[in-house]
Amino acid sequence: MAKVSINIKQGTIQKTSEVVIGIDLGTTNSLVAYTREGKTVVVKDESGKHALVPSILYFNKDKSVTVGDEARKMLALDPANTIYSVKRLMGKSFKDVLDFEQYFGYKVIDEDTDSLVKVMVGDKFYSPVELSAEILKALKLRIEKELNATVSRAVITVPAYFNDTQRQATRDAGKLAGLDVLRIVNEPTAASLAYGIGLDPEESKTIVVYDLGGGTFDVSVLRIQNGIFEVLSTNGDTFLGGDDFDRLLVDYWIEINARNKEQTIADKKLSQAMRLMAEKAKKSLSNTGQFKEMINDMNCQISIETFNKLAQPIVQKTIDYCKSALKDAKLGVADIDQVIMVGGSTRMKLVKDMVADFFEKPVNDSLNPDEVVAIGAGIQADVLAGNQKDILLLDITPLSLGIETVGGLMDTIIPRNSKIPIKAARQYTTSIDGQANLKVSVFQGERDLVEHNRKLGAFILKGIPPMAAGLPKIQIEFIINADGILTVKAKELRSNTEQEIEIRSQFGLSDEEMAKMLLDSIKHAESDMNTRALLEARNEAQNIVLSTGKFLVQNAGILSDDEKSQTADLAKQLAETIKGSDKDVINKAMEVINEYTTPLAQRALEHNISIALQGKNINDDAS
């Protein structure tokens, strides 16, 4: 089969020797790199000085989007329309970010605790995928100016601890930006490539990659031998990073200035100004022992000693993850040949010292920690372009994958830290005579009960021949490809009845739809994104209409006539918006009905609990 790629500008398919680019899509900053004449370079701005593109978007009054340094200037001036730390929202539900929502200068929408977050800008609603796509478009434009040519193939890095939903969201964002995403690569693997570890086929090493970025932390133990990269274990937290140090400083300044924390954070312009000041203080303290500046009438001062005392518990959390990674790899600190440091937050002396103390050896931070991952992505891109034949990358699945069995138990089919790509299967049977259908619910996580893990998807195997319980042989097969994307198949072996599902993000499009968007990216990019968002909004709205109807029936005696009438009217209005084609009108209607019914639902819950407990004895149900 001939290799072809897509000319985005012309919307045509053509044979090409086009460069494959590497992208580090970061929480705080993003970068793009490529390999030229055997050397991987990070693309700088037009001045040739700055490689970092702040992962910040500003929505102008005309709805156009500005990305990067110009957008960063608007954080304190217009926080409601300036979006940052999008990576922290990738693949997340509102429940996942609830404890941090107050720190965002923009509005994060809570429609349902299990649905994925949206960001509201003006009267428009955006998913993290759409927002990330804008950052990727800016990086794509930067390298196209550098090369004076169109690019459409890319490698994008993600934290090693990103789950399946987050990986798929990153891939979707790339495709929405007009990029054919050839591979999703773990950031620690990319970093080790940047350090040149493993490029010598004769080299054999066991290394630790400690990656503390703006919003995520992960640590990976890798064994490199004969040009093969094998991830022995990985651990970390997708919600831990430099942003947390900034927040510590903001909270400290609020405290020493005797300000009300909630009121101060609610002032979005002030809180964003303080967040930017915290970034400045953190960088300054790396070189000086004292920082002191003013914001309005607030004294923003701190010493390096005080900052280290505040920051020590966060750094210790990363050390605890390092301990877990070593334990999973069945190694001790003496088995580690080298510890390499990645991410801007590793510039902190406290971080370097604590990591060096734990691993009992000096850390390697000889490369620019901000550019390491992008350089590695550029090298991996060159590998996929066919220019480096001696490197093979073996990644792992970061969390266990399995299905729900009787009693809500998690039955693991692929354990965490299994090498990918991988295929694994297990046989099950029915528990009821004549059972014709079997629901397969797929979960990801390490807990014994599925209620503590993350549900990735579900489907029903239909048409099982009627048999006595225990006779059918049902094989459940999990297949993870090189990008960490999961396909689940169920087959009744006696009758060959089968069903399969690709576990992808709840908001994703099919590969066929994505391919069409890639081909039509110039003419139809915006309309295609709106189509996906509209379908998502309609589905969510329909669920709310149905649940509202049930709520009114079940709680008719609790609600007043006015409350019942108002709730019914809002549900009717929402149902009408579903017929329309404006996703933002639907989202707004959902927000209105949720705001109105949330206190009613809370009151109904408290009432029903009170009734259930009134005069109740723990032995009542036993009689």
Q: What overall form do the CA principal axes indicate?
A: globular
- How would a textbook summarize the main sheet? 6 strands, mixed
Count up the helices: 15
Helix content: 25-40%
The CATH architecture of the largest domain comes to 2-Layer Sandwich
SS strand fraction = 25-35%
CATH superfamily of the largest domain: ATPase, nucleotide binding domain
> Span from first to last CA?
72 Å
Question: Runs with pLDDT <50, length 5+?
Answer: 1-16, 505-511, 513-525, 617-623
CATH class of the largest domain: Alpha Beta
Class computed from helices, strands and strand pairing = alpha+beta
CATH fold assignment of the largest domain: Nucleotidyltransferase, domain 5
Give Rg in angstroms.
Answer: 26 Å
* Mean model confidence by pLDDT: 81
Number of domains: 4
Give me the count of strands: 30
